[in-house]
Design a protein that fits this description.
- The complex is a heterodimer.
- Chain A is α+β, with helices and mostly antiparallel strands.
- In chain B, helix 5 packs antiparallel against helix 6, helix 13 packs antiparallel against helix 14 and helix 14 runs antiparallel to helix 16.
- The chains are: A alpha+beta, B mainly alpha.
- At the A-B interface, helix 2, helix 8, strand 10 and strand 12 of A face helix 1, helix 6 and helix 17 of B.
Chain lengths: ~475, ~325
């Protein structure tokens, strides 16, 4: 009843552990061999133990639509995904390069606008960007960094190469699940760690704290850094609380903060205490009701004044999302050449822009082959997966694209690689992506691996946790 | 420390204590009723009196039988202080303060919540109920131990302890109330046919002690047969037993002294201390403890009001409200 890898067939897709049925990749051999040595009963028991551990540890996320039962357990698959150190070093260089260029771009957009004057990126795109914040024009944050924390989504096509799918520069989430996935695996499968040199990932909270401390307006050994959460009903509340705990910071809500004379304070049992840096997990438009959405009860009145005067550090900086836009995304390779004078290390997924008449025509004629994405949505909402969509859905998207070409871009349907998932009785291939987290403060940092998200439904490409996706531990191994 | 966090951990302490003391109460009380003849003034309704849930209970149920009372106290979600609700609140407060409490404590609070949630069966028999209550008590004590030995004894810890000890003092005062109220002739004759409890006085007071896990400590301290006035004195004034009011008050002061702007709260505690130490127990027991206990409970509630005023509603918050 044990696992027989000969029966595991990922078909035409690139598989993370297996090169063809019965032939595991070199780095995965010890793992596949060990798993095959376990009886079906043993595997089942481990699976149950994992579920119990996740329940007890309270690793959860929140689904908005399920009223009443807001807290849902994190779906986790116990078979790790393995990436070699060599491949990762290359990928990691590419990620750092990308974030450096993106930060140059955001700073340029809000200051000199050189890239627009040189017509490398059309100025029109920025004017029409939903994430451009005119309030930030002229702002020069410390180190000229706007996006301190970035979550970049990578996918692997059939050729086995990593492609960048998108950059998340606003409030990327998922890193706590990456850390907890490792903790759970260590608890339940300690044997797996015996034969491998796996890169540890536990230093992320320290690195994050250092990155945040580096943007304190006044240089201090221990600046007061706080994590600003929208509250317990937010889908990522678990993560906010987890990171605050791991960094030893206060977790605050808007109502805990107070701005006086353009300085930010928190309300403590001793009275008002100054705050130096805010790791905000609230969207721009809710940050400060004085400047943005006046109805926001989540934000802090006066926060923007304090930030613009340089009295508090905000990560990520308001307005950083201007580069987190699926249309701007298509220009990132050009940005890398423009600002860094380097060749992009990681390729983009080829994309079609609907702002270009000829490309829009191509998109509309080939909707059955393409994936259409709105420029400014995240979490997989509002997408059209052409090959799987109905005629009616495609017609609806054609109408939307014609009405708002700036709001859409399209990509060919890239295959996502697969990785084995433990099913009821067998190993089954499921599609995965990878979200590494990149930090940029005074120096850059990339997580060893990242969060591997899994589409738990057979054949599905939708990996988002809000839509039924799960996740795996991800190992970077030295051979 | 953030005011909002201080408030949440304070309530965490209160609810955790409430879970344990309610479980103790239910366990010991059931055991005691089996020792008493039927028809005494001590019956299942007394339990509802102790926890002060009469209004909600009477709206929902017509009679006070064992099944309904137990269901009410254990799992009823309409009753805010049922064990299950208290546990939900404890868990919610722990969940929203995970950045300040040790992970193990959160995990244990979460685990006991799941145990209760998975084993809730309002129709469970006495044996199963006994087992479940035992488990809740043991788990609660494990959680308390985890806090003591794994959490830094910092300000957050002091707020948890304030919540815990205040809740404990409150519960002990309620039990003193019960032990005495039913022994006095004028109170034991709600109905004409009822049997006098006098011969059973011993059993009742012994069970009050057991409820607090105080029987052994009492015997060691008082070295005498169990008598009402001595039990009352022990539970009010003993400085060494962890569930006596005197001990809880000293603990409150110990933690209050670590906090800023503590004057008014310490004064409120001192007032309770005077009431309980000055109590002339002998004459009180003769006359009836009712008024005295009322005064005591109101003054305990005052401590809570002061804590809330000083630390949880900072002036800025009040400005916002206004």
């Amino acid at each position: 009843m044990a696992i027989n890898w000969k029966n595991y067939n990922p078909g035409e897709f690139y598989d993370e552990l297996i090169s063809s049925p019965g032939y595991p990749r070199k780095a995965a051999r010890k793992l596949t061999k060990y798993l095959a040595s376990l009886s079906h009963e043993e595997l089942k028991q481990r699976k149950a133990t994992i579920e119990h551990a996740i329940k007890t540890m309270g690793i959860s996320f929140t689904v908005y639509s399920e009223a009443g039962n807001i807290d849902r357990q994190w779906p986790f698959d116990l078979i790790p995904r393995i990436i070699t150190q060599k491949e990762w070093d290359h990928t990691s260089d590419g990620l750092k390069q990308r974030l450096r260029a993106l930060n140059c771009f955001v700073h340029d957009v809000y200051n000199d606008g050189k890239i627009l004057k040189d017509k490398v990126v059309p100025a029109d795109l920025i004017k029409k960007s939903k994430n451009f914040r005119k309030e930030c024009v002229g702002m020069k944050p410390l180190h000229e960094v706007w996006a301190h924390i970035c979550g970049t989504d990578l996918i692997r096509d059939k050729d086995g190469e990593f492609y960048v799918l998108e950059d998340n520069l606003r409030v990327p989430s998922g890193v706590s699940y990456m850390l907890e996935n490792r903790t759970v695996t260590k608890r339940v499968f300690p044997e797996l760690f015996e034969n491998y040199n796996i890169q540890p990932i536990t230093d992320y909270p320290t690195q994050l704290f250092d990155t945040l401390a580096a943007i304190s307006p006044k240089p201090k050994d221990f600046p007061e850094v706080v994590v600003l959460t929208p509250g317990i009903f937010n889908s990522a509340y678990f993560e906010h609380s987890y990171l605050a705990q791991q960094m030893g910071c206060e977790l605050v809500q808007g109502s805990d903060l107070y701005v006086e004379d353009d300085h930010v304070f928190m309300k403590t049992i001793e009275g008002l205490a100054p705050v130096d840096v805010i790791y905000r997990r609230i969207d721009d438009l809710f940050l400060d009701p004085e400047v943005f959405n006046p109805d926001s009860a989540l934000g802090v009145p006066g926060l923007m004044r304090a930030w613009l005067k340089g009295n508090v550090g905000l990560a990520n900086a308001p307005g950083a999302g201007v580069a987190d836009d699926k249309v701007i995304y298509t220009y990132v390779p050009k940005m890398i050449k423009y600002y860094l004078d380097e060749e992009p290390i990681l390729p983009n997924v080829p994309s079609f822009l609907c702002t270009d008449k000829a490309q829009m025509q191509h998109v509309i004629q080939n909707l059955d082959k393409l994936v259409v994405k709105p420029a400014n949505e995240s979490g997989g909402y509002g997408m059209l997966i052409g090959p799987q969509a109905s005629k009616k859905e495609r017609a609806e998207f054609a109408r939307r694209i014609r009405a708002n070409p700036r709001e859409y871009m399209a990509q060919p349907l890239i295959s996502l690689s697969t990785s084995p998932v433990l099913g009821e009785n067998t190993m089954e291939p499921r599609h995965v992506d990878l979200r590494p987290f990149i930090l940029q403060g005074s120096k850059p940092y990339v997580t060893a691996g990242g969060l591997t998200r899994v589409a738990m439904v057979k054949g599905s490409y939708v990996v988002n946790s809000s839509q039924g996706g799960g996740s795996k531990d991800t190992w970077i191994v030295r051979e | 420390m953030l005011s909002s966090v201080a408030e949440r951990v304070y309530w965490l302490g209160r609810y955790l204590e409430r879970v344990e003391s309610s479980a103790r109460l239910l366990k010991v009380y059931s055991a005691m009723l089996f020792d008493l003849p039927r028809g005494t003034s001590l019956d299942w309704s007394t339990l509802i009196d102790i926890v002060g849930g009469n209004d909600i209970y009477d709206k929902k149920y017509q009679s006070y039988d064992e099944k309904q009372v137990v269901k009410f106290l254990l799992v009823d979600t309409d009753y805010p202080n049922s064990i299950f609700n208290s546990l939900i609140m404890a868990r919610e407060n722990a969940r929203t303060t995970r950045e300040v409490i040790p992970s193990e404590t959160w995990e244990q609070v979460n685990a006991i919540y799941h145990v209760l949630k998975d084993n809730l069966n309002p129709r469970m028999g006495r044996a199963a109920r006994y087992q479940l209550l035992e488990e809740i008590i043991t788990d609660s004590q494990r959680i308390e131990g985890l806090f003591v030995s794994s959490m830094s004894h910092n300000k957050a810890y002091s707020f948890i302890e304030l919540g815990r000890k205040l809740e404990r003092a409150d519960m002990t005062s309620r039990l003193v109330d019960v032990g005495s109220i039913n022994l006095l002739p004028e109170f034991s004759s709600k109905s004409q046919e009822r049997v006098s409890l006098e011969p059973y006085e011993n059993i009742v007071w012994m069970n009050v002690l057991r409820c607090l896990g105080a029987f052994q400590a009492y015997r060691q301290q008082v070295q005498n047969r169990v008598s009402g006035r001595k039990v009352v004195r022990f539970l009010l004034q003993d400085e060494e037993f962890p569930r006596s009011i005197g001990f809880c008050l000293s603990e409150l002061v110990f933690h209050l002294e670590k906090l800023p702007n503590n004057d008014d709260v310490i004064r409120a505690v001192a007032r309770v201390k005077r009431i309980s130490i000055d109590a002339k127990v002998d004459s009180l027991v003769e006359k009836g403890l009712l008024e005295f206990i009322d005064e005591l409970q109101i003054s305990i509630a005052d401590i809570h009001e002061e804590i809330t005023r000083i630390w949880f509603n900072s002036e800025i918050r009040q400005e916002e409200a206004a």
